[in-house]
Amino acid sequence: MELVFEKNFTVSPHDADQQGRLTLAAVLQYTQQAAEGHCELLGTDWQTMHEKGLFWAVLRHKIVVERLPRTGQVITVKTWPMPTTRVAYPRAVQAVDENGQELFRVISLWVLMDTKTRAMTLPARCGVEVPGTVLGIEPELPSSLAPGVHTNETLWTVSQEDLDVNCHVNNARYLAHTQSLSETLFAQRTPRQITVCYLSECRLGQQIRIHWSVDETGVLSVDGLRARTDVPEKTERVFAAKICW
To answer: Which of 138, 122, 149 is nearest to 78 (CA)?
Structure first.
């Protein structure tokens, strides 16, 4: 059984920004594709979980960037599950270039959700075991992000292209919308640490109010809000992001 799985990618223009660097959304897309390949070997792939009435959902991501690969560059994404916690299945990633030099690392917290109730199922109850390992190069687990006070607002209406096979917004799409908020910042700097917290499922047609701001040190903070179904005049926080340079 492969405890560390590797998958090669060639950075395409579609996955790059205006500077020719891999976008943050594509970082998550590549890591997700590598994880999917590993899950097939481990017997925890989407189809197998679906037959059990379960699906994978991510709670948090942290990305630590050394440098972002450029269009045409071949990179290797290595991924491995870490030891399961009481509530989640952590998974780590390291990406390297053709010479074995590190590009970025990622750590994420995954949970299993009940397909019908859309509620989280604890590892001890669902009976899904994932062998975990620690290589010693994993980033620290991502912490929660406190709500901020913001000066800007952008409206995002969830479209079909935002959705994944679970009929909710794919995790990479949150970063795609976050990166689009301030192209000037991304043109001038390379992001060094990115944290994203996914707090509630977002579905087709829902309107998300993205509140965001950049502080005096250049840190970009984002809160995504949605009208509550039970009290429409009030909002609930559905995701948060923080990007440091």
So the answer is: 138
